[in-house]
């Protein structure tokens, strides 16, 4: 669940950054690689080409951030589990026979 939130935050930030500066790689390179035509058609007041490049950047960097977060979270949880197993327990007393 937290990984999805990381993805969404990075996605939103990169879309905004790329709309401000369309030269942020690799969005434009992906757009050119798929052979999409250059157009000035407006969607939400933005030309399609920079908007699509921004979405590509948001998705790419969002996935990278999500994977990074997931790997770091797993490493952290495995270290936490290892430290829990190293806790020393008091030694058990040998069984004593009770006399009645």
Structure description:
The structure is a single chain. This protein is mainly alpha-helical. It has helices at residues 2-20, 27-33, 48-85; strands at residues 42-43, 46-47. The protein has one domain (2-80). Strands 1-2 form a two-stranded antiparallel ribbon. Helix 1 packs antiparallel against helix 3 (48-85) and helix 2 packs across helix 3 (48-85). The mean pLDDT is 86. Strand 1 and strand 2 form a beta hairpin. It contains three helices and two strands; from the N terminus they run ααββα. This is PDGLE domain-containing protein. The chain crosses the membrane at residues 51-72. Residues 84-100 have a biased composition (Basic and acidic residues). Residues 77-100 are annotated as: Disordered. Keywords: Membrane, Transmembrane, Transmembrane helix.
